[in-house]
Write a structure and sequence with these properties.
- It is a single chain.
- By secondary structure, the chain is of the alpha+beta class.
- Helices cover 27% and strands 25% of the residues.
- The chain has two domains: 359 residues, DD-peptidase/beta-lactamase superfamily (Beta-lactamase), CATH 3.40.710.10; 84 residues, Lipocalin, CATH 2.40.128.
- It has 14 helices and 21 strands.
- The strands form four sheets. It has a nine-stranded antiparallel β-sheet with strand order 3-2-1-13-12-11-10-9-8, with helices on both faces.
- A hairpin with a 2-residue loop joins β11 and β12.
- α2 packs parallel to α7.
- The relative contact order is 0.15.
């Protein structure tokens, strides 16, 4: 079993340690690939603070929503084998699939689910496994069956709204077509093919490993270890894979190998890395399990992931055959900040921005709304499908909106399309979308898949 470490430059090591200290991250595992080779892979800090065990390039960690690209690979493999059509209704493969709106149910396709424009958003069904005992679902298919009670946030194809339940549906779809558990499919069709020797589909495999991460959250000046679910199989296709920086680096190599990838043809890989759900008029958007951004004519393909005590980030610059993955055992923007800067050091120029605090350089020609239009959005919005109250206050400034959160954080957003706004000052590049009723009144706000109902 391969256990190599490839060291980073002094500049890269210093930056990683600086972010780790500044953001209070116990441990970081990172890797860089360039031109089809792993050029750096190592760990920093501790995978286990209590025992002072070091993080390594081979430390196994949940990769969270980086899993979504694996689900995208699985779906596209079925497309290539002729067993699935991206624009065929899901009910053609899962006859019992439905949401509360029967007509909308028949408009749901694998493509719509892959690029996060189904209109479902996060429905609260996946969240139930975190707060209910025993587990409310016997298996993944039962979760998908309960989506029959879901009223959509918007019509299909109308808006971006990140949906873990949509990716749960794709996982069940892959199982139904293949007739084997998704765990076995991932192992035989992706992990084994790429040579991912320490990558698993079950949290139990992560927990039993000798070199495995422990997640942490700050409690004042101290740290508290976070506890994840014993069984996360219900959410496997949305965020349940566990891997290492080294293994994921090999996955990035295969994912960028348009000429000879062992996973998919060049056309399928390109489809995954192409905007299918645009973010307004910016040219940015969501592909299949990846987000796509542009800067100085350079395409950047990336995705983040997070669970309690874990933050992950991976990015690719396909034209440069450059990829970076960062796994950390603490929540926050540290993984993304490190990944962006590592890519910049390889490119010799900023990937997106000189520092993480600088504005994100998307372009828009959308005419800023007038004050009367902006005023239509102002108000208080409360999150639906959540036990504890979470509220967003929308305020107005000249040409922009300010979203103020319960914790006091205030982020400015600018218009990039009709009822669509994006911030230049947030680690999360995903847009917010305001929803109107048939009379044209703003009734709700969609952010990161969550529905916030207007209350005043």
């Amino acid at each position: 079993m391969t256990t190599q470490n490839f060291d980073f430059s002094a500049e890269q090591r210093d930056f990683i340690e600086s972010v780790r200290e500044t953001r209070g991250i116990p441990g970081v595992a990172a890797a860089i690939v360039k031109d089809g080779e792993i050029v750096a892979a190592n760990g920093f800090g501790y995978r286990n603070r209590d025992m002072n065990l070091p993080m390594t390039a081979h430390t196994i960690s949940p990769i969270c929503s980086l899993t979504k690209s694996f689900t995208g690979i699985a779906v596209m493999q079925l497309v290539e084998s002729g067993e699935l059509w991206l624009d065929e209704p899901v009910v053609s493969y899962l006859p019992k699939f439905r949401v509360a709106d029967i007509e909308a149910s028949h408009k749901m396709t694998p493509r719509i689910l892959l690029c996060q424009k189904s209109g479902m958003g996060n429905t609260g069904h996946r969240d139930r496994i975190w707060v209910e005992e025993p587990n409310p679902y016997q298996d993944r298919a039962e979760l998908v069956a309960q989506l029959a009670e879901v009223w959509l946030q918007t019509a299909p194809n109308a808006a971006f709204s990140y949906s873990n339940e949509g990716y749960a549906t794709l996982g069940v779809l892959v199982e139904a077509i293949n007739g084997i558990p998704l765990e076995d499919y991932f192992q035989s069709h992706i992990f084994d093919v790429v040579g991912m020797e320490r990558t698993y589909s079950r949290f139990s495999q992560w927990r039993s490993a000798m070199d495995r991460s422990h997640g942490y959250q700050k409690k004042g000046e101290d740290y508290e270890e976070t506890q994840l679910l014993e069984d996360y199989s219900i959410s496997l296709s949305t965020g349940g894979i566990c891997s290492t920086a080294y293994d994921f680096a090999n996955y990035l190599i295969a994912t960028m190998d348009y000429a000879n990838s062992s996973l998919l043809s060049s056309g399928s890989l390109d489809a995954m890395h192409t905007v299918s759900m645009p973010y307004g008029d910016t040219g940015w958007g969501y592909g299949f399990g990846w987000e796509i951004a542009w800067n100085v004519g350079r395409k950047i393909v990336s995705h983040s992931g997070g669970l309690p005590g874990i933050a992950t980030y991976a990015l690719m610059v396909p034209a440069e055959r450059l990829g970076v993955v960062v796994l950390t055992n603490s929540r926050g923007w540290g993984a993304q900040q490190i990944a962006e800067q590592l890519a910049s050091t390889v490119l010799g120029t900023p990937l997106l921005r000189s520092t993480f605090e600088d504005p994100v350089p998307f372009n828009t020609r959308y005419t800023p709304p007038c004050a009367d239009t902006l005023a239509q959005y102002v108000g208080k919005y409360t999150r639906v499908y959540r036990a504890e109250e979470e509220q967003i206050s929308v305020e107005m400034e000249i040409g922009k909106l300010i979203l103020r959160y319960t914790d006091g954080e205030a982020i400015p957003f600018i218009a990039i399309g009709k009822d669509v706004f994006l911030s230049r000052y947030s680690g999360n590049w995903r847009p917010i979308h305001f929803v109107r009723d048939p009379e044209g009144n703003v009734t709700s706000l969609l952010q990161r898949g969550h529905l916030f109902q207007r209350r005043g």
